[in-house]
Write a structure and sequence with these properties.
Two copies of one chain form a homodimer.
Chain A: E1 4-8, H1 13-24, E2 28-35, H2 42-54, E3 58-63, H3 86-91, H4 101-116, E4 120-122, H5 138-151, H6 153-156, E5 163-165, H7 173-182, H8 207-219
Parallel strand pairs in A: 1-2, 1-4, 2-3, 4-5
Chain lengths: 229, 229
């Protein structure tokens, strides 16, 4: 039987490609999608579509309303930046940063992994195109791995030796799109936009849309998603 | 103005004493209470009472249904052990262990702390009376502290140098009760039982009740709580 792996699946381009990589490596996928009050909740529908297409073994949706804390453009009444250059995106940690998000998500993935007996966690973080988020860097991931070994019953008892897989961490968006395409990912199922309109249509102008469009252009591929403009 | 501190407040004896210690150290308290599907949700009412009595600045309640994962007597259909000896409690990690719970809670506290600008986190974990939980040990807490420094915008930018305070970690339950009493804690506001009856009355026989009762007896104090038997 295939080994189980927990994968954080947002329904975006990165987590979808990460899921495809995990599946290609022979893992049995246990997906976890978080409804944390993000304004782009349309991505949860994408997560559902992707999980179905990937044949995940089990898909858990957890709701945790991080709007209770505030402090981010993704969860609060702060405007999502539009039409920024790559230089602007990389100059500082953007307002779309959600405090401690990946730590919260990985902690939840760790609890899920312990219950299903998975030693392997996959997260589609990336330190290249979007270098601003502190919790997307390799040194952060290594620190989480050290914590995981001490944090759980299965870890302490030596039954599970956790490994945090970040297959995309050193890839450009174009490389991610190319790799996903090779693995048969249908990017038409995914969602990237931070600020979709009421119908769920991507804005084409937020950082997430701009990086996605730039990635497809550089990969020489056509983005199957429609955009509002 | 007093420095802000985030405190994980379950409404139990330990977190309440921890809050009293933080307040005595001059911190302005930002409490966080988690409704994670625990069968002893009565503790959340205790958290509300305690927070009011302590004059906390802000109290956030977050719901996150860890029953979606299962794997614990506190969140699933596993029976809560009763009438165990201290030796039995310490012999193995009990079924009341919730996978990765303190990692999930500390991750959320970290997000809250970043938003309110708090460098100090308080958690009432204890490695003496109840040595079974892996995520109650000092080495675990140290690993979380190292992670926190790498995980957040405020940490990476050097604005906040996180400190995880565990004032109870080396105290016995009797010492915790004595210290809380010195600080004026009204333990009649708190709740400890893992398996209260429908009216919220403590069972007196689960590990949490037994340790609490033993603690009061050893401290030479009277537990103000009524018990079902």
């Amino acid at each position: 039987m295939a080994k189980p792996a927990v994968i954080l699946l947002s329904g975006g381009l990165d987590s979808t490609t990460t899921a495809a990589i995990a599946r290609a490596e022979g893992f049995d996928l246990y997906a976890l999608s978080l409804d944390y009050g993000q304004r782009h909740r349309h991505e949860l529908e994408a997560a559902r579509r992707v999980a179905r297409a990937m044949g995940v073994r089990r898909h858990v949706f957890l709701a945790i309303d991080l709007r209770a804390f505030g402090g981010s453009a993704l969860t609060g009444p702060i405007e999502v930046p539009k039409d920024r250059s790559l230089g602007q995106m990389q100059a500082e940690i953007p307002v779309t940063y959600v405090p401690a998000r990946n730590t919260i998500f990985l902690a939840l993935a760790l609890g899920y992994a312990e219950v299903v007996g998975a030693a392997d966690l996959f997260i589609g973080i990336n330190a290249i195109d979007y270098s601003g988020y502190p919790d997307c860097r390799p040194e952060y991931v290594a620190a989480f791995g050290r914590l995981a070994a001490l944090a759980t019953k299965a870890g302490v008892e030596g039954r599970l030796s956790y490994q945090i897989h970040t297959p995309l961490v050193a890839m450009t968006k174009a490389e991610i799109i190319s790799r996903g395409t090779e693995l048969g990912v249908d990017f038409g199922l995914t969602h990237s936009c931070y600020d979709p309109d009421a119908a769920g249509l991507s804005c084409g102008r937020c950082d997430a849309c701009l990086l996605r469009r730039k990635g497809f252009a550089e990969a020489g591929l056509v983005d199957p998603l429609p955009y509002a403009r």
